[in-house]
Structure formats: structure tokens, C-alpha cells
Amino acid sequence: MPSIEVIYFSGSAHTAQHAQAIQAGASELAEATVREIPHDGDICDDTWRALDAADAIVFGAENESDAANDPLNKLTRDSFRRYWGDKIAACFVPPAIGAETEAQQRFWDLACRHGMTWVAPGEPDDLGDINTNLRRSRDLGRQVAELADAFS
Fold first, then answer.
1. Which of 18, 93, 135, 143 lies deepest, with the highest CB count within 10 Å?
2. Weakly modelled stretches of the chain, pLDDT under 50
């Protein structure tokens, strides 16, 4: 059974809801764990080991200013000591008008630098409907799990 790690940074519960939805979708076919990046960005050794051992990593964050995303910058910088070229990658950014593209680009860049196989998150269906967007996150989790299962 494939292993999927969902790792995210957030200043609100909204992003956590999407992480849980992705975990729920992925758990239908894989072992899936959600981990929140601490506000200081210091990721513990157990989390690094889990990320290294995973078949897939789903990254998540809100699209905020660079200062708010310093923990993500630290994750990006610290991850380059690791080999993740054998993993599947995806991302989620809770919908906000015009805000998703920058954060998605950052995660895509991280995945490309590692040589990871990218699963595109697609476009939000309805910015105002939380249930639709949580369903979309759940579908992304299942899609990542299906791909991880096919490659494992």
C-alpha cells in the first residue's frame, strides 16, 4: 500500500480543512498522513524521515506574502539535501480570487527541482463554495493515491 504525506503551512483552519480532505481521499487507496509545518519552519527529524519514505508528497499553503511563507521557503531550501526524484508530488492552495497561481508555481518548481512526477491540481470550480472545493481536494488526494499505487 503506498504512503502519502500531506505537508502544509497555514495561518488558518481553512488550509487544514483542505489537508484533511486530501488525506481522506488518499486514504481510500493508501496510507496518508497530514503534517503541519510549524510557524518557525523547523521540521523535526521524524517528519523528514516520513517525507523521505513516502511514495507521494502533497504540499499545501495559503497564498500570502513571502514573509508569511518563510516556513515554506525553509522547507524548499532544506529539502534539497534529500533525494525525492522517485516520488509523486502535488499541491493544494485553498481558493482565493487570483491567488492560487503564485503558490502553485512555487510548489511545481520545488517538484521539478527534485525530479518528482507532478500531479496538476486543476482549477477551482467555485471560489465561494467550500463544499465544492473540499470535494475537489478529496479528489486530488484520491488521484495522487491512484498514481502512487500504479507506480509502487
1. 18
2. 65, 67-68, 97
